[in-house]
Amino acid sequence: MSAGHPSEQLRTRRAGTDWPLRLLSGLALAVVAVSAVALQPEIMALLLALMCLFAAREWHRMVRTVPPPHGMAHVQTAVTALAIAAAIAAMLWQAAWAGFLLLAAGAAAAAILARQRGDNAPWHALGVLYIGVPALSLMALRLVSGLNGSLVVLGLFLIVWSTDTGALLVGRLVGGPKLAPAISPGKTWAGTIGGSVAAALVYGLYIAMIGHAAGQAALFALVFSIAAHLGDLLESVFKRRFGTKDTGGLIPGHGGALDRMDSTLVAAPVLAVLVFAFHFNPLFGGPW
Predict the structure, then answer these.
(1) What pLDDT shows up at residue 67?
(2) Which is more confidently placed, 69 or 146?
(3) Residue 9 binned pLDDT confidence (cut-offs 50, 70, 90)
(4) 147 — phi, psi (to 5°)?
(5) Pairing of strands 184-188, 178-180
(6) Alpha helices in 64-146 (DSSP H)
(7) What pLDDT sits at residue 66?
(8) Residue 255 forms beta bridges with which residues?
(9) Residue (of 227, 229, 207) closest to 218 by Cα position
(10) How many CB atoms lie within 10 A of CB 162?
(11) Cβ neighbourhood burial of 19 (10 Å; 0-12, 13-18, 19+)
């Protein structure tokens, strides 16, 4: 899509006028997210389950190729949301294996429901994993033993948020060559680099505030921010595949729940693999 295309021009105008609303809603969501992470794990689990419910609704609506019978769209969303909520509950009870089995069962159920009406079965099934695995990853990181899980998850959020914000601001101010015009025409190389630098600065300061190795943390965030960028691009691939600009209108200035979660959907599983498979300490100090 060229920069002169009418829909691209509309997107540019909206980006220029929606930023105050985007900022306010983003701050409100950040307050809710930080509060949930800082409180009991059960509170975070409830918030995760709620966000996954909205995300599941948006995903099934986006990938649908056949109009569902009356009420069937809600059934498909409910099946996915219940599978993910049950998986999160299993993780709370320290039964990660059960959580992943529940996600697999939810994906199978989503595929069967879609196939019965000749719909896009593989994509409906994929949604359960695309949303559910990151949710389990976040819950596992919150409950990690030997580290302060609240600080780990908050640090992940700071990297993701600063990457997104830095990319948005620098991309608008600098402009320049596009990163992947065939996938996401609005993203630039300048914005991508600016987002990574912002993540390094913010995360380095965060780790310094809790008294650990700030320089190492900044370098880690600089590299790890690639996962956040990839999450953003991956959802752009999905939306372009199905001809969707925003997955929904739930969050003013941001779009849908999936639009707000896109970077986290890749970053959370990547960090979980680093922590649980390689015993990486994302706090760069303290017990492990």
Answers:
(1) 84
(2) 146
(3) very low
(4) -135, 160
(5) antiparallel
(6) 72-92, 96-116, 121-142
(7) 87
(8) 251
(9) 207
(10) 24
(11) middle
Residue 17 has pLDDT above 60, yes or no: no
pLDDT per residue as tens digits for the range 60-79: 999 999 887 777 778 999 99
Strands (E), the chain: 178-180, 184-188
What is the percent of the chain with per-residue pLDDT over 90, rounded to a whole number? 76
Task: With a cut of 80, say whether residue 8 has pLDDT above it.
Answer: no
Query: Rounded to whole angstroms, how far apart are CA atoms 18 and 100?
Result: 39
How many residues would you count in the chain?
Answer: 288
Written as six digits, the tokens of 118 are: 């000749």
Helix (H, G, I), strand (E, B) or coil at 187: strand
Q: Is 42 helix (H, G, I), strand (E, B) or coil?
A: helix
Kindly state the DSSP code that residue 93 receives in the 8-state scheme.
T
Rounded to whole angstroms, the Cα distance separating 211 from 230 reads 30
Q: Are 149 and 78 in contact (CB under 8 A)?
A: no
User: Given this model, what pLDDT does residue 285 score?
Assistant: 86
pLDDT confidence of residue 248: 83
Q: How many CA atoms lie within 13 A of 107 on its CB side?
A: 18
Amino acid at 122: P
Q: Which residues contact 253 (CB under 8 A, 6 or more apart)?
A: 18, 19, 20, 21, 22, 23, 24, 25, 26
What are the residue ranges spanned by the domains of the chain? 19-278
At 1, list the tokens: 């899509």
The answer to whether 231 and 183 are in contact (CB under 8 A) is no
